[in-house]
Structure formats: C-alpha cells, structure tokens
C-alpha cells in the first residue's frame, strides 16, 4: 500500500480523537466555566452538527480545488479549531473551536476516501479506504483514552494542544507524501461537468441514496447501544463506573478489526460483505439486550458489535464512490455526514425508548431494528441493480460495412 495512506491515517487519528475525547472531559469543562452538564455536552453535539453541515459545505466550496490541496486546507482548519479550543478563555470560544474543527471532518474523510481509492488499483480500493479509516478506529483504542487521562490528570487544554500538534503532523505528511494530482478528476471531466451541478447530479443515482440510507441505519444502530453504554454497564451488568473506559477500549479493538476485515473482503465481494456484516450486527445488538446483563457476556459482545458495525464502513464508502464515479467528492463527503446523522438519530430513538420506561438494555433493540433496516435496503439495492443490468439492451451487432472498415 502507498505510504501516502499513512498521512491520511494520521489525520484520521487526530479527527477521531478530538471527536470523542470530550465525552470524558465534560466534568473539566463544567468546573472550568461553571456550566451545567447539558451545556457542556454541546461540545459533543455541536461537533456532530458541524460535521453534518460542514461535509457538503466544504466539499462544494472546495469543488474546484485540487484534492491534495483541499486535504491540506482541511487539516489547517482542523488544527486552528483545536488550537482555539486549547486557549479558550470562555465557554463559547471553546464551543466555537469545536465547530471550526468539525467543519473539516466530513470533507477530510470524503475527499480522503477518493484520494485513497485512486492511489491503488481497482481491486484494492476498499482496502485503501479501510487503511485511512484505521486512524479513526485506533483513535478509539489509544487516542481517546490517552487524551481523557491527560485531560483529567494534567490539563484538558493540553489534550487539545496535542491534538492540534497531530493536525500539524498530518498536514506535513500530506504535503510530503500525497502525490500532486492524486484523486483529481481528468481535466476533460472537470471542464464538462459543470462544477457543483456535476457533483449534485450524483444524488440522482438511486444507489447513492440507498447507500447513504444504509450508512444512517447501519452504523447508527451501533450508537443506539454505545450512547447509553455507561448506564447499561453499571445498572444492568453491575460494572463499576471506572470499568467503562476499558469496556470502550474493547469496543475500539472491535472497530479496528472490523474496519480491516471489511476493507479486505469488500474488494472481493462487496455486497456479500454487507449482507454478512449487517446481519451479524443486527443479531449481536439483539443478543446484547440479554448479554448486557452479564459481565462476561457484555465484555464479549461489545467488541463484536464494534467489529460488525465498522465492517460496513469501507464497503459502503466504496459503494458510494463506485456509483458516483463521475463526481464522487460531494457524495463521499455527505456520506460521512450520514454517519453522524445516524449517530444522532440512534441516540434520540434510544432515549425515547428509555423515557418510555424501557429497561437500560432496550436501546439495543432500537439498534438491532436499525441494522435490520439497513440489511433490507442492501437487498433492495442489489435487486434494483440486478434488474437494471438485466434490462440493459445488448450491444448491437456490427454491420458488414462496419466490419469491413
């Protein structure tokens, strides 16, 4: 695999760390600024909203920019946002820094997926995308726990300063290692595509929309469980609050494994990989309703949920690129926003179930239903694709005059 993928993975590691590390630093924000827990939580929800909005916005604004340069600009934006958070004198400045850094999130992964896929041959594109996303999954195992510990034991501002430093390192790596012109559309395609109109045309393709809906439901199902993992593990499984950190680390290990396996097998058989991973995810989430009440069962099921959940990411991202081949940048970036939209939807639905009087493990059933819905959409997409292929007229036979020429 090209070494340029390492630079993309470093950027993904920094983004993954800053996205999730705030969940462990909310008490520090409350103490520093004198805000309530719900207000401190805006640092997480504001970031998610910024990803959803920033993904298409940055992709459109950077539509005529070379993709290597756009990746570098996203890393500059990411670094500035985290540096602003590190020195924030008021809570609103911290929140502004979070939003600024989040604007780079969707476009970086969206454009990075296009670049990663075009750095390798057609038979290795999902694996290349998975290697970039490895940075994000490793962040959940290493970056988030380390950043949380640093913020709790030393200073939360230092956590954001270190993440800003990772942004600088990724920026330097992209500048040095990613080839000029990597992932850029041919000049003829750019000239005839109509810029934004060409990118928006990808959304007329039903397979692109179906893949995005699968993203919302599939990985969103994972967050129906993970959002409420702390009360689930303490109330149902009987773990101490201090154990939640290593349980999340187990979940993160599952993310790493699922990402690599999903990327490898999506290159061989994309749709079968989706069928298997979505089916297994729905079953694992449904079983977690029962196993979450047992310490050993919970510790075994959590990494499986992470593995089956993230095994869907490389094939879904590759499916977007395959079906929006003439204008992949915006569609790829919007699909990253779809992950966050799914996370927010799952957390909301899980909260509704709990508010209605459900037990602490009932959000898992919401997740299982969402994953099952994504599986139905995958079957629908494959069926439509097969019908379109069968209905396509065969190429005309050459005439004798053509044959003579």
TrEMBL record:
It is a multi-pass membrane protein. InterPro entries: MFS (IPR011701), MFS_dom (IPR020846), MFS_Efflux_Transporters (IPR050189), MFS_trans_sf (IPR036259), Tet-R_TetA/multi-R_MdtG-like (IPR001958). Gene3D superfamilies: MFS general substrate transporter like domains. The chain crosses the membrane at residues 44-63, 70-88, 100-121, 128-150, 156-178, 208-231, 243-261, 273-290, 296-316, 328-353, 365-384. Keywords: Cell membrane, Membrane, Transmembrane, Transmembrane helix. GO terms for molecular function: transmembrane transporter activity. It is found in: Cell membrane. One of its GO terms (cellular component) is plasma membrane. Residues 4-389 form the Major facilitator superfamily (MFS) profile domain. CDD domains: MFS_NepI_like. This is MFS transporter.
């Amino acid at each position: 695999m090209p070494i340029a993928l390492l630079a993309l993975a470093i950027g993904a590691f920094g983004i993954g760390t800053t996205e999730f590390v705030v969940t462990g630093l909310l008490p520090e924000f409350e103490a520093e600024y004198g805000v309530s827990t719900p207000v401190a939580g805006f640092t997480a929800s504001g970031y998610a909203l910024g990803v959803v909005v920033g993904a298409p916005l940055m992709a459109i604004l950077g539509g005529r920019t070379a993709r290597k340069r756009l990746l570098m600009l996203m890393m500059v934006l990411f670094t500035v946002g985290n540096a602003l958070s590190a020195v924030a004198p008021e809570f609103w400045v911290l929140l502004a820094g979070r939003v600024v850094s989040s604007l780079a999130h969707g476009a970086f992964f969206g454009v990075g997926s296009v670049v990663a896929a075009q750095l390798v041959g057609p038979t290795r594109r999902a694996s290349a995308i998975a290697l970039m996303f490895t940075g994000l999954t490793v962040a959940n195992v290493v970056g988030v726990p380390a950043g949380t510990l640093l913020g709790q034991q030393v200073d939360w501002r230092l956590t954001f300063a270190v993440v800003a430093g990772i942004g600088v390192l990724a920026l330097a790596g992209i500048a040095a290692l990613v080839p000029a012109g990597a992932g850029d559309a041919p000049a003829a395609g750019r000239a005839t595509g109509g810029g934004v109109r060409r990118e928006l045309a990808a959304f007329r393709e039903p397979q692109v929309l179906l893949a995005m809906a699968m993203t919302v439901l599939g990985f969103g199902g994972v967050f129906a469980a993970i959002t409420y993992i702390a009360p689930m593990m303490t109330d149902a499984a009987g773990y101490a609050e201090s154990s939640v950190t290593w349980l999340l680390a187990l979940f993160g290990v599952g993310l790493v494994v699922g990402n690599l396996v999903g990327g490898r097998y999506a290159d061989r058989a994309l749709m079968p990989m989706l069928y298997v991973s979505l089916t297994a995810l729905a079953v694992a989430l449904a079983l977690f309703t029962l196993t979450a009440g047992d310490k050993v069962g919970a510790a075994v099921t959590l990494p499986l949920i992470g593995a089956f959940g993230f095994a869907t990411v490389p094939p879904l991202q590759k499916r977007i690129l395959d079906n929006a081949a003439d204008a992949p940048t915006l569609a790829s970036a919007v699909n990253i926003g779809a992950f966050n939209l799914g996370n927010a939807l799952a957390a909301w639905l899980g909260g509704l179930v709990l508010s209605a009087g459900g037990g602490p493990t009932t959000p898992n059933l919401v997740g299982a239903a969402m994953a099952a819905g994504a599986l139905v959409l995958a079957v629908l997409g494959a069926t439509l694709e097969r019908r379109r292929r069968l209905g396509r007229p065969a190429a005309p036979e050459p005439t004798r005059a053509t044959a003579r020429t």
